[in-house]
Amino acid sequence: FQFTIMVVGESGLGKSTLINTLFNTTLYAPKEVLAPSAERPKTVAIQSISADIEENGVRLRLTVVDTPGFGDFVNNHESWKPILDNIESRFDSYLEQENRVNRQKIVDNRVHACLYFIQPTGHSLKPIDVEFMRQLHTKVNLIPVIAKADTLTDEEILKFKQRILSDIAHHQIHIFQAPIYDNDDEETIAENEEIASKIPFAVVGSDREVRTADGRSVRGRSYPWGVIEVDNEEHCDFVKLRQMLIRTNMEELREHTNDVLYENWRSEKLIN
Amino acid sequence: FQFTIMVVGESGLGKSTLINTLFNTTLYAPKEVLAPSAERPKTVAIQSISADIEENGVRLRLTVVDTPGFGDFVNNHESWKPILDNIESRFDSYLEQENRVNRQKIVDNRVHACLYFIQPTGHSLKPIDVEFMRQLHTKVNLIPVIAKADTLTDEEILKFKQRILSDIAHHQIHIFQAPIYDNDDEETIAENEEIASKIPFAVVGSDREVRTADGRSVRGRSYPWGVIEVDNEEHCDFVKLRQMLIRTNMEELREHTNDVLYENWRSEKLIN
Ligand SMILES: Nc1nc2c(ncn2[C@@H]2O[C@H](COP(=O)(O)OP(=O)(O)O)[C@@H](O)[C@H]2O)c(=O)[nH]1
Ligand SMILES: Nc1nc2c(ncn2[C@@H]2O[C@H](COP(=O)(O)OP(=O)(O)O)[C@@H](O)[C@H]2O)c(=O)[nH]1
Fold this sequence. Notes:
Two copies of one chain form a homodimer.
Chain A: E1 2-8, H1 15-22, E2 47-55, E3 58-66, H2 81-98, E4 113-118, H3 127-136, E5 142-146, H4 154-170, H5 186-196, E6 201-202, E7 209-211, E8 217-223, E9 226-229, H6 238-248, H7 250-271
Parallel strand pairs in A: 1-3, 1-4, 4-5, 5-6
Antiparallel strand pairs in A: 2-3, 7-8, 8-9
One guanosine-5'-diphosphate sits between chains B (11-17, 31, 148, 150, 204-205, 221) and A (122, 151, 156).
Protein name (chains A, B): Probable cell division control protein CDC3
Keywords (chains A, B): Cell cycle, Cell division, GTP-binding, Nucleotide-binding
Family (chains A, B): Belongs to the TRAFAC class TrmE-Era-EngA-EngB-Septin-like GTPase superfamily. Septin GTPase family.
Protein backbone atom coordinates (compact mmCIF):
# COMPACT_ATOMS: atom_id res chain seq x y z
CA PHE A 1 0.00 0.00 0.00
CA GLN A 2 0.93 3.68 -0.21
CA PHE A 3 2.27 5.92 2.50
CA THR A 4 3.16 9.55 1.89
CA ILE A 5 5.06 11.57 4.44
CA MET A 6 5.89 15.25 4.05
CA VAL A 7 8.98 16.75 5.65
CA VAL A 8 9.06 20.45 6.57
CA GLY A 9 11.67 22.63 8.26
CA GLU A 10 14.49 25.01 7.48
CA SER A 11 17.62 23.82 5.77
CA GLY A 12 20.20 22.14 7.96
CA LEU A 13 17.87 20.64 10.58
CA GLY A 14 18.84 17.09 9.60
CA LYS A 15 15.66 16.27 7.67
CA SER A 16 17.24 14.21 4.87
CA THR A 17 19.40 12.38 7.38
CA LEU A 18 16.40 11.57 9.55
CA ILE A 19 14.40 10.18 6.64
CA ASN A 20 17.32 7.94 5.70
CA THR A 21 17.61 6.84 9.32
CA LEU A 22 13.86 6.18 9.70
CA PHE A 23 13.59 3.96 6.70
CA ASN A 24 17.08 2.51 6.92
CA THR A 25 17.77 3.44 3.34
CA THR A 26 19.69 6.11 1.50
CA LEU A 27 16.59 7.72 0.06
CA TYR A 28 18.46 11.04 0.05
CA ALA A 29 22.04 11.10 -1.19
CA PRO A 30 24.35 13.39 0.78
CA LYS A 31 23.31 16.90 -0.08
CA GLU A 32 24.99 18.83 -2.86
CA VAL A 33 24.94 22.28 -1.35
CA LEU A 34 24.68 25.02 -3.98
CA ALA A 35 27.99 26.71 -4.84
CA PRO A 36 28.51 30.18 -3.34
CA SER A 37 27.87 31.71 -6.74
CA ALA A 38 24.82 29.61 -7.62
CA GLU A 39 21.48 31.28 -8.11
CA ARG A 40 19.41 30.49 -5.05
CA PRO A 41 15.74 29.57 -5.58
CA LYS A 42 13.32 32.29 -4.50
CA THR A 43 10.30 30.20 -3.56
CA VAL A 44 9.51 27.03 -1.68
CA ALA A 45 9.76 23.99 -3.95
CA ILE A 46 7.87 20.73 -3.57
CA GLN A 47 9.85 17.62 -4.45
CA SER A 48 8.83 13.97 -4.19
CA ILE A 49 10.89 10.86 -3.99
CA SER A 50 9.43 7.35 -3.83
CA ALA A 51 10.77 3.93 -2.99
CA ASP A 52 9.38 0.45 -2.49
CA ILE A 53 10.32 -0.67 0.97
CA GLU A 54 9.42 -3.44 3.35
CA GLU A 55 8.46 -2.82 6.95
CA ASN A 56 7.38 -5.63 9.32
CA GLY A 57 7.00 -7.93 6.33
CA VAL A 58 4.64 -5.43 4.73
CA ARG A 59 5.65 -4.07 1.36
CA LEU A 60 4.79 -0.44 0.93
CA ARG A 61 5.35 2.34 -1.55
CA LEU A 62 6.83 5.11 0.52
CA THR A 63 6.77 8.63 -0.85
CA VAL A 64 8.62 11.44 0.89
CA VAL A 65 7.63 14.96 -0.05
CA ASP A 66 10.40 17.47 0.56
CA THR A 67 9.85 21.21 0.81
CA PRO A 68 13.23 22.89 0.25
CA GLY A 69 13.24 26.63 0.81
CA PHE A 70 10.73 26.68 3.65
CA GLY A 71 12.03 29.07 6.29
CA ASP A 72 15.26 29.71 4.38
CA PHE A 73 14.68 33.17 2.94
CA VAL A 74 15.15 36.56 4.54
CA ASN A 75 11.39 36.93 4.04
CA ASN A 76 9.38 33.80 4.66
CA HIS A 77 6.02 35.46 4.13
CA GLU A 78 3.47 32.78 3.28
CA SER A 79 6.14 30.12 2.78
CA TRP A 80 3.47 27.67 3.96
CA LYS A 81 1.29 28.43 0.95
CA PRO A 82 2.93 26.24 -1.72
CA ILE A 83 2.89 23.43 0.84
CA LEU A 84 -0.81 23.83 1.60
CA ASP A 85 -1.55 24.05 -2.12
CA ASN A 86 0.26 20.77 -2.67
CA ILE A 87 -1.69 19.00 0.06
CA GLU A 88 -4.98 20.26 -1.32
CA SER A 89 -4.10 19.38 -4.90
CA ARG A 90 -3.61 15.81 -3.71
CA PHE A 91 -7.08 15.95 -2.12
CA ASP A 92 -8.38 17.25 -5.46
CA SER A 93 -6.83 14.38 -7.35
CA TYR A 94 -8.28 11.86 -4.87
CA LEU A 95 -11.74 13.44 -5.16
CA GLU A 96 -11.50 13.30 -8.92
CA GLN A 97 -10.67 9.58 -8.74
CA GLU A 98 -13.50 8.97 -6.27
CA ASN A 99 -15.93 10.57 -8.68
CA ARG A 100 -15.04 8.27 -11.56
CA VAL A 101 -17.24 5.44 -12.75
CA ASN A 102 -14.49 2.87 -12.29
CA ARG A 103 -13.07 3.22 -8.76
CA GLN A 104 -11.10 0.01 -8.58
CA LYS A 105 -7.68 1.49 -8.86
CA ILE A 106 -7.70 4.62 -6.75
CA VAL A 107 -4.15 5.73 -6.06
CA ASP A 108 -3.91 7.41 -2.68
CA ASN A 109 -1.31 10.15 -3.00
CA ARG A 110 -2.62 12.19 -0.11
CA VAL A 111 -0.15 13.27 2.52
CA HIS A 112 -0.67 10.97 5.52
CA ALA A 113 1.75 12.66 7.89
CA CYS A 114 3.78 15.85 8.05
CA LEU A 115 6.97 15.78 10.08
CA TYR A 116 7.61 19.34 11.20
CA PHE A 117 11.17 20.05 12.33
CA ILE A 118 11.62 22.46 15.21
CA GLN A 119 15.00 24.15 15.58
CA PRO A 120 16.57 23.19 18.95
CA THR A 121 16.80 26.75 20.27
CA GLY A 122 15.86 25.69 23.79
CA HIS A 123 13.47 28.65 24.05
CA SER A 124 10.02 28.31 22.44
CA LEU A 125 8.32 27.87 19.08
CA LYS A 126 9.28 30.50 16.51
CA PRO A 127 6.67 32.66 14.76
CA ILE A 128 7.24 30.69 11.55
CA ASP A 129 6.56 27.40 13.37
CA VAL A 130 3.30 28.66 14.80
CA GLU A 131 2.19 30.12 11.49
CA PHE A 132 2.93 26.92 9.59
CA MET A 133 1.16 24.66 12.03
CA ARG A 134 -1.92 26.90 12.27
CA GLN A 135 -2.24 26.99 8.49
CA LEU A 136 -1.87 23.25 8.02
CA HIS A 137 -3.16 21.40 11.07
CA THR A 138 -6.65 20.89 9.63
CA LYS A 139 -5.28 19.48 6.38
CA VAL A 140 -2.56 17.08 7.47
CA ASN A 141 -1.53 15.00 10.48
CA LEU A 142 1.14 17.16 12.12
CA ILE A 143 3.97 15.42 13.93
CA PRO A 144 6.34 18.06 15.32
CA VAL A 145 9.82 16.84 16.20
CA ILE A 146 12.72 18.60 17.91
CA ALA A 147 15.51 18.43 15.34
CA LYS A 148 19.15 17.67 16.18
CA ALA A 149 18.20 16.97 19.76
CA ASP A 150 21.81 16.16 20.64
CA THR A 151 22.18 19.95 20.90
CA LEU A 152 20.17 19.90 24.13
CA THR A 153 20.86 18.37 27.53
CA ASP A 154 18.19 16.13 29.10
CA GLU A 155 17.11 18.98 31.34
CA GLU A 156 16.85 21.41 28.42
CA ILE A 157 14.81 18.89 26.42
CA LEU A 158 12.24 18.51 29.19
CA LYS A 159 11.77 22.27 29.54
CA PHE A 160 11.68 22.78 25.79
CA LYS A 161 9.06 20.05 25.27
CA GLN A 162 6.85 21.54 27.96
CA ARG A 163 7.17 24.96 26.42
CA ILE A 164 6.41 23.68 22.91
CA LEU A 165 3.30 21.87 24.14
CA SER A 166 2.06 24.98 25.91
CA ASP A 167 2.72 27.09 22.78
CA ILE A 168 0.75 24.51 20.78
CA ALA A 169 -2.12 24.57 23.28
CA HIS A 170 -2.12 28.36 23.40
CA HIS A 171 -2.39 28.66 19.63
CA GLN A 172 -5.01 25.89 19.49
CA ILE A 173 -2.94 23.82 17.13
CA HIS A 174 -3.98 20.20 16.65
CA ILE A 175 -1.12 17.77 16.42
CA PHE A 176 -1.53 14.08 15.71
CA GLN A 177 -2.48 12.17 18.83
CA ALA A 178 -1.69 8.47 18.74
CA PRO A 179 -5.05 6.99 19.73
CA ILE A 180 -5.07 4.71 22.79
CA TYR A 181 -7.72 2.01 22.60
CA ASP A 182 -9.22 0.78 25.87
CA ASN A 183 -9.78 -2.62 24.35
CA ASP A 184 -6.10 -3.10 23.59
CA ASP A 185 -4.06 -5.36 25.83
CA GLU A 186 -2.32 -3.82 28.85
CA GLU A 187 1.08 -4.01 27.24
CA THR A 188 0.03 -2.18 24.07
CA ILE A 189 -1.75 0.50 26.09
CA ALA A 190 1.33 1.04 28.24
CA GLU A 191 3.50 1.19 25.14
CA ASN A 192 1.26 3.74 23.42
CA GLU A 193 1.09 5.87 26.56
CA GLU A 194 4.87 5.75 26.77
CA ILE A 195 5.11 6.90 23.15
CA ALA A 196 2.53 9.67 23.70
CA SER A 197 4.39 10.95 26.77
CA LYS A 198 7.47 11.75 24.66
CA ILE A 199 5.77 14.04 22.17
CA PRO A 200 7.23 16.15 20.62
CA PHE A 201 9.96 13.62 19.93
CA ALA A 202 13.52 14.85 20.40
CA VAL A 203 15.21 13.18 17.45
CA VAL A 204 18.73 12.54 16.25
CA GLY A 205 19.49 11.01 12.88
CA SER A 206 22.51 9.32 11.41
CA ASP A 207 23.05 7.33 8.26
CA ARG A 208 26.49 6.14 9.25
CA GLU A 209 27.93 3.59 11.66
CA VAL A 210 30.36 4.68 14.34
CA ARG A 211 32.21 2.82 17.06
CA THR A 212 31.41 3.39 20.73
CA ALA A 213 34.01 3.57 23.51
CA ASP A 214 33.13 -0.02 24.47
CA GLY A 215 33.64 -1.23 20.92
CA ARG A 216 30.05 -1.57 19.65
CA SER A 217 29.19 -0.48 16.11
CA VAL A 218 26.09 1.70 16.17
CA ARG A 219 24.20 4.27 14.08
CA GLY A 220 25.22 7.54 15.63
CA ARG A 221 27.41 10.61 15.70
CA SER A 222 30.93 10.55 17.02
CA TYR A 223 32.19 13.58 18.95
CA PRO A 224 35.47 14.03 20.83
CA TRP A 225 33.48 13.90 24.08
CA GLY A 226 31.36 10.85 23.28
CA VAL A 227 29.20 8.94 20.85
CA ILE A 228 25.46 9.57 20.60
CA GLU A 229 23.56 6.47 19.58
CA VAL A 230 20.43 7.02 17.51
CA ASP A 231 18.81 3.75 18.60
CA ASN A 232 19.54 4.28 22.31
CA GLU A 233 16.40 5.52 24.07
CA GLU A 234 18.55 7.09 26.78
CA HIS A 235 20.03 9.35 24.11
CA CYS A 236 16.99 10.47 22.08
CA ASP A 237 13.42 9.62 21.03
CA PHE A 238 14.26 8.25 17.60
CA VAL A 239 13.02 4.76 18.46
CA LYS A 240 9.71 6.17 19.76
CA LEU A 241 9.20 8.18 16.55
CA ARG A 242 9.91 5.14 14.46
CA GLN A 243 7.53 3.01 16.52
CA MET A 244 4.75 5.56 16.27
CA LEU A 245 5.18 6.24 12.61
CA ILE A 246 5.83 2.79 11.28
CA ARG A 247 4.78 0.16 13.73
CA THR A 248 1.80 1.36 15.69
CA ASN A 249 0.23 4.21 13.80
CA MET A 250 0.74 4.06 10.07
CA GLU A 251 -2.80 2.75 9.74
CA GLU A 252 -4.26 5.42 12.04
CA LEU A 253 -2.43 8.13 10.11
CA ARG A 254 -3.95 6.97 6.84
CA GLU A 255 -7.42 6.53 8.35
CA HIS A 256 -7.41 9.90 10.04
CA THR A 257 -6.36 11.50 6.76
CA ASN A 258 -9.16 9.76 4.90
CA ASP A 259 -11.97 9.82 7.47
CA VAL A 260 -11.43 13.23 9.00
CA LEU A 261 -9.02 15.58 7.22
CA TYR A 262 -10.04 14.69 3.69
CA GLU A 263 -13.74 14.43 4.53
CA ASN A 264 -13.76 17.87 6.19
CA TRP A 265 -11.97 19.36 3.20
CA ARG A 266 -14.39 17.65 0.82
CA SER A 267 -17.52 18.86 2.64
CA GLU A 268 -16.22 22.40 2.73
CA LYS A 269 -15.35 22.22 -0.93
CA LEU A 270 -18.77 20.90 -1.96
CA ILE A 271 -20.58 23.48 0.18
CA ASN A 272 -18.74 26.38 -1.48
CA PHE B 1 39.22 51.98 29.18
CA GLN B 2 36.08 51.23 27.20
CA PHE B 3 35.32 48.21 25.07
CA THR B 4 32.01 47.76 23.29
CA ILE B 5 31.05 44.48 21.68
CA MET B 6 27.87 43.90 19.75
CA VAL B 7 26.25 40.48 19.60
CA VAL B 8 24.08 39.52 16.61
CA GLY B 9 22.25 36.33 15.67
CA GLU B 10 18.85 34.69 15.88
CA SER B 11 17.35 33.75 19.21
CA GLY B 12 18.55 30.50 20.73
CA LEU B 13 22.07 30.43 19.29
CA GLY B 14 23.64 30.68 22.75
CA LYS B 15 24.63 34.36 22.54
CA SER B 16 23.87 35.32 26.16
CA THR B 17 25.52 32.16 27.40
CA LEU B 18 28.63 32.84 25.34
CA ILE B 19 28.97 36.41 26.61
CA ASN B 20 28.72 35.13 30.19
CA THR B 21 31.32 32.47 29.40
CA LEU B 22 33.70 34.90 27.68
CA PHE B 23 33.79 37.36 30.52
CA ASN B 24 33.35 34.83 33.30
CA THR B 25 30.45 36.77 34.71
CA THR B 26 26.69 36.50 34.74
CA LEU B 27 26.19 39.60 32.63
CA TYR B 28 22.97 38.05 31.32
CA ALA B 29 20.65 36.34 33.77
CA PRO B 30 19.04 33.14 32.45
CA LYS B 31 16.53 34.24 29.86
CA GLU B 32 12.91 34.82 30.73
CA VAL B 33 11.28 33.59 27.58
CA LEU B 34 8.05 35.44 26.76
CA ALA B 35 4.89 33.57 27.77
CA PRO B 36 3.00 31.89 24.90
CA SER B 37 0.38 34.62 25.09
CA ALA B 38 2.78 37.54 25.34
CA GLU B 39 2.85 40.15 22.62
CA ARG B 40 6.00 39.54 20.63
CA PRO B 41 8.04 42.60 19.55
CA LYS B 42 7.79 43.37 15.85
CA THR B 43 11.16 45.04 15.25
CA VAL B 44 14.77 44.49 16.14
CA ALA B 45 15.60 46.13 19.48
CA ILE B 46 18.99 47.44 20.57
CA GLN B 47 19.83 46.86 24.23
CA SER B 48 23.02 47.67 26.10
CA ILE B 49 24.41 46.28 29.29
CA SER B 50 27.65 47.46 30.90
CA ALA B 51 29.92 46.14 33.60
CA ASP B 52 33.28 47.05 35.06
CA ILE B 53 35.50 44.03 34.72
CA GLU B 54 39.17 43.21 35.06
CA GLU B 55 41.11 41.33 32.39
CA ASN B 56 44.86 40.64 32.69
CA GLY B 57 45.08 43.17 35.48
CA VAL B 58 43.50 45.79 33.22
CA ARG B 59 40.27 47.31 34.40
CA LEU B 60 37.84 47.98 31.61
CA ARG B 61 34.30 49.11 31.14
CA LEU B 62 32.76 46.42 29.02
CA THR B 63 29.55 47.18 27.17
CA VAL B 64 27.64 44.44 25.38
CA VAL B 65 25.08 45.55 22.83
CA ASP B 66 22.37 42.98 22.26
CA THR B 67 20.09 42.92 19.22
CA PRO B 68 17.05 40.80 20.12
CA GLY B 69 14.69 40.14 17.24
CA PHE B 70 17.33 39.93 14.52
CA GLY B 71 16.44 36.99 12.29
CA ASP B 72 13.51 35.98 14.49
CA PHE B 73 10.54 37.15 12.44
CA VAL B 74 8.77 35.46 9.57
CA ASN B 75 9.95 38.45 7.52
CA ASN B 76 13.42 39.68 8.34
CA HIS B 77 13.48 42.32 5.64
CA GLU B 78 16.11 44.94 6.54
CA SER B 79 16.51 43.57 10.05
CA TRP B 80 20.10 44.82 9.79
CA LYS B 81 18.94 48.43 9.50
CA PRO B 82 18.31 49.28 13.20
CA ILE B 83 21.70 47.72 13.92
CA LEU B 84 23.51 49.79 11.30
CA ASP B 85 21.69 52.91 12.52
CA ASN B 86 22.90 52.22 16.04
CA ILE B 87 26.52 51.84 14.95
CA GLU B 88 26.37 55.04 12.95
CA SER B 89 24.68 56.99 15.73
CA ARG B 90 27.65 56.05 17.92
CA PHE B 91 29.98 57.41 15.22
CA ASP B 92 27.86 60.57 15.20
CA SER B 93 28.18 60.99 18.93
CA TYR B 94 31.95 60.48 18.73
CA LEU B 95 32.25 63.03 15.91
CA GLU B 96 30.23 65.49 17.92
CA GLN B 97 32.61 65.05 20.88
CA GLU B 98 35.64 65.38 18.60
CA ASN B 99 34.32 68.67 17.33
CA ARG B 100 34.00 70.21 20.77
CA VAL B 101 36.40 72.83 22.12
CA ASN B 102 37.22 70.71 25.19
CA ARG B 103 38.20 67.20 24.04
CA GLN B 104 39.70 65.94 27.27
CA LYS B 105 36.94 63.59 28.20
CA ILE B 106 35.83 61.89 25.00
CA VAL B 107 33.80 58.81 25.82
CA ASP B 108 34.31 56.14 23.17
CA ASN B 109 31.00 54.32 22.79
CA ARG B 110 31.68 53.10 19.29
CA VAL B 111 31.20 49.41 18.63
CA HIS B 112 34.68 47.85 18.54
CA ALA B 113 33.65 44.34 17.52
CA CYS B 114 30.54 42.56 16.30
CA LEU B 115 30.23 38.86 17.09
CA TYR B 116 28.00 37.39 14.41
CA PHE B 117 26.49 34.01 15.29
CA ILE B 118 26.11 31.50 12.47
CA GLN B 119 23.56 28.71 12.93
CA PRO B 120 25.35 25.32 12.85
CA THR B 121 23.42 23.97 9.85
CA GLY B 122 26.47 22.24 8.43
CA HIS B 123 25.59 23.56 4.96
CA SER B 124 26.57 27.17 4.10
CA LEU B 125 25.83 30.77 5.09
CA LYS B 126 22.15 31.69 4.99
CA PRO B 127 20.88 34.62 2.90
CA ILE B 128 20.29 36.60 6.10
CA ASP B 129 23.92 36.03 7.19
CA VAL B 130 25.27 37.27 3.86
CA GLU B 131 22.97 40.28 3.81
CA PHE B 132 23.88 41.31 7.36
CA MET B 133 27.60 41.03 6.83
CA ARG B 134 27.55 42.87 3.51
CA GLN B 135 25.61 45.74 5.05
CA LEU B 136 27.83 46.06 8.09
CA HIS B 137 31.38 45.00 7.26
CA THR B 138 32.56 48.52 6.43
CA LYS B 139 31.20 49.92 9.69
CA VAL B 140 32.24 47.40 12.32
CA ASN B 141 34.87 44.69 12.91
CA LEU B 142 32.98 41.50 12.04
CA ILE B 143 33.91 38.35 13.92
CA PRO B 144 31.70 35.50 12.68
CA VAL B 145 31.45 32.48 14.98
CA ILE B 146 29.79 29.11 14.49
CA ALA B 147 27.27 28.93 17.33
CA LYS B 148 26.60 25.81 19.41
CA ALA B 149 29.45 24.02 17.69
CA ASP B 150 28.85 20.91 19.78
CA THR B 151 26.12 20.19 17.20
CA LEU B 152 28.79 19.36 14.63
CA THR B 153 31.39 16.61 14.45
CA ASP B 154 35.04 17.55 13.86
CA GLU B 155 34.70 16.54 10.23
CA GLU B 156 31.54 18.61 9.77
CA ILE B 157 33.18 21.64 11.38
CA LEU B 158 36.11 21.56 8.97
CA LYS B 159 33.84 21.37 5.92
CA PHE B 160 31.52 24.03 7.28
CA LYS B 161 34.37 26.45 8.05
CA GLN B 162 35.77 26.02 4.54
CA ARG B 163 32.35 26.66 3.04
CA ILE B 164 31.73 29.72 5.20
CA LEU B 165 35.10 31.21 4.22
CA SER B 166 34.40 30.62 0.53
CA ASP B 167 30.92 32.20 0.89
CA ILE B 168 32.58 35.19 2.59
CA ALA B 169 35.18 35.48 -0.17
CA HIS B 170 32.56 35.12 -2.88
CA HIS B 171 30.46 37.94 -1.46
CA GLN B 172 33.54 40.11 -0.85
CA ILE B 173 32.80 40.42 2.83
CA HIS B 174 35.59 41.77 5.03
CA ILE B 175 35.88 40.05 8.38
CA PHE B 176 38.30 41.11 11.07
CA GLN B 177 41.79 39.75 10.44
CA ALA B 178 44.00 39.49 13.49
CA PRO B 179 47.11 41.30 12.26
CA ILE B 180 50.37 39.34 12.41
CA TYR B 181 53.41 41.54 12.98
CA ASP B 182 56.71 40.40 11.49
CA ASN B 183 58.59 42.09 14.30
CA ASP B 184 56.84 40.03 16.97
CA ASP B 185 58.72 37.18 18.57
CA GLU B 186 58.43 33.74 16.98
CA GLU B 187 56.16 32.45 19.70
CA THR B 188 53.64 35.29 19.35
CA ILE B 189 53.62 34.94 15.57
CA ALA B 190 52.98 31.22 15.82
CA GLU B 191 50.22 31.82 18.35
CA ASN B 192 48.52 34.45 16.18
CA GLU B 193 48.76 32.23 13.11
CA GLU B 194 47.23 29.41 15.11
CA ILE B 195 44.37 31.68 16.14
CA ALA B 196 43.88 32.93 12.57
CA SER B 197 43.76 29.36 11.22
CA LYS B 198 40.67 28.59 13.30
CA ILE B 199 38.47 31.39 11.96
CA PRO B 200 35.48 31.28 11.97
CA PHE B 201 35.68 30.00 15.55
CA ALA B 202 33.42 27.06 16.37
CA VAL B 203 32.26 28.03 19.85
CA VAL B 204 30.48 26.42 22.74
CA GLY B 205 29.41 28.34 25.81
CA SER B 206 28.44 27.35 29.32
CA ASP B 207 27.92 29.30 32.49
CA ARG B 208 27.73 26.25 34.69
CA GLU B 209 30.16 23.73 36.10
CA VAL B 210 29.72 20.04 35.38
CA ARG B 211 31.65 16.96 36.38
CA THR B 212 33.58 14.91 33.83
CA ALA B 213 33.78 11.12 33.80
CA ASP B 214 37.22 11.33 35.38
CA GLY B 215 35.97 13.55 38.17
CA ARG B 216 37.15 17.01 37.08
CA SER B 217 34.86 20.02 37.54
CA VAL B 218 34.77 22.02 34.32
CA ARG B 219 32.70 24.64 32.50
CA GLY B 220 30.73 22.59 30.01
CA ARG B 221 27.59 20.76 29.00
CA SER B 222 26.74 17.33 30.32
CA TYR B 223 25.05 14.89 27.94
CA PRO B 224 24.24 11.20 28.51
CA TRP B 225 26.98 10.36 26.00
CA GLY B 226 29.68 12.64 27.37
CA VAL B 227 30.72 16.02 28.69
CA ILE B 228 31.84 18.80 26.36
CA GLU B 229 34.37 21.08 28.01
CA VAL B 230 34.28 24.72 26.92
CA ASP B 231 37.94 25.34 27.83
CA ASN B 232 39.21 22.20 26.10
CA GLU B 233 40.71 23.10 22.72
CA GLU B 234 40.06 19.56 21.49
CA HIS B 235 36.36 20.22 21.96
CA CYS B 236 35.85 23.73 20.51
CA ASP B 237 37.53 27.05 19.68
CA PHE B 238 36.27 28.96 22.70
CA VAL B 239 39.78 29.49 24.08
CA LYS B 240 40.97 30.83 20.71
CA LEU B 241 38.07 33.30 20.54
CA ARG B 242 38.78 34.47 24.06
CA GLN B 243 42.47 34.86 23.29
CA MET B 244 41.82 36.83 20.14
CA LEU B 245 39.16 39.06 21.62
CA ILE B 246 40.60 39.76 25.01
CA ARG B 247 44.28 38.97 25.12
CA THR B 248 45.81 39.64 21.76
CA ASN B 249 43.51 41.89 19.83
CA MET B 250 41.39 44.15 21.97
CA GLU B 251 43.75 47.00 21.14
CA GLU B 252 43.76 46.22 17.39
CA LEU B 253 39.97 46.08 17.39
CA ARG B 254 39.72 49.53 18.94
CA GLU B 255 42.44 50.96 16.68
CA HIS B 256 40.92 49.55 13.51
CA THR B 257 37.55 50.97 14.52
CA ASN B 258 39.08 54.40 15.13
CA ASP B 259 41.69 54.60 12.36
CA VAL B 260 39.84 52.88 9.53
CA LEU B 261 36.13 52.25 10.03
CA TYR B 262 35.32 55.54 11.78
CA GLU B 263 37.66 57.59 9.57
CA ASN B 264 36.10 56.21 6.37
CA TRP B 265 32.62 56.90 7.71
CA ARG B 266 33.65 60.41 8.74
CA SER B 267 35.22 61.26 5.35
CA GLU B 268 32.15 60.04 3.53
CA LYS B 269 29.91 62.00 5.84
CA LEU B 270 31.87 65.23 5.42
CA ILE B 271 32.01 64.84 1.65
CA ASN B 272 28.22 64.51 1.41
N1 LIG C 1 23.88 17.34 15.61
C1 LIG C 1 23.19 16.70 14.66
N2 LIG C 1 23.53 16.88 13.36
C2 LIG C 1 22.83 16.21 12.45
C3 LIG C 1 21.74 15.37 12.77
N3 LIG C 1 21.22 14.87 11.63
C4 LIG C 1 21.96 15.37 10.63
N4 LIG C 1 22.93 16.18 11.11
C5 LIG C 1 23.94 16.92 10.35
O1 LIG C 1 23.38 18.18 9.99
C6 LIG C 1 23.79 18.55 8.68
C7 LIG C 1 22.57 18.76 7.81
O2 LIG C 1 21.85 17.55 7.68
P1 LIG C 1 20.78 17.34 6.50
O3 LIG C 1 20.16 15.99 6.70
O4 LIG C 1 21.41 17.61 5.19
O5 LIG C 1 19.73 18.48 6.86
P2 LIG C 1 18.52 19.07 5.95
O6 LIG C 1 19.08 20.28 5.24
O7 LIG C 1 17.46 19.44 6.93
O8 LIG C 1 18.08 17.98 5.02
C8 LIG C 1 24.71 17.44 8.20
O9 LIG C 1 26.04 17.82 8.51
C9 LIG C 1 24.30 16.25 9.05
O10 LIG C 1 25.35 15.31 9.25
C10 LIG C 1 21.40 15.22 14.16
O11 LIG C 1 20.46 14.52 14.55
N5 LIG C 1 22.16 15.90 15.05
N1 LIG D 1 24.39 22.86 22.44
C1 LIG D 1 24.65 24.06 22.96
N2 LIG D 1 23.67 24.71 23.64
C2 LIG D 1 23.97 25.91 24.15
C3 LIG D 1 25.24 26.51 24.00
N3 LIG D 1 25.22 27.72 24.62
C4 LIG D 1 24.00 27.86 25.14
N4 LIG D 1 23.23 26.77 24.87
C5 LIG D 1 21.84 26.54 25.24
O1 LIG D 1 21.01 27.09 24.23
C6 LIG D 1 19.85 27.70 24.82
C7 LIG D 1 19.79 29.16 24.42
O2 LIG D 1 20.91 29.85 24.95
P1 LIG D 1 20.91 31.44 25.08
O3 LIG D 1 22.25 31.84 25.60
O4 LIG D 1 19.72 31.89 25.84
O5 LIG D 1 20.77 31.87 23.55
P2 LIG D 1 20.41 33.31 22.93
O6 LIG D 1 18.93 33.32 22.71
O7 LIG D 1 21.16 33.35 21.64
O8 LIG D 1 20.89 34.35 23.88
C8 LIG D 1 19.96 27.46 26.33
O9 LIG D 1 19.24 26.26 26.61
C9 LIG D 1 21.44 27.24 26.53
O10 LIG D 1 21.74 26.42 27.65
C10 LIG D 1 26.24 25.79 23.27
O11 LIG D 1 27.38 26.24 23.07
N5 LIG D 1 25.89 24.58 22.79
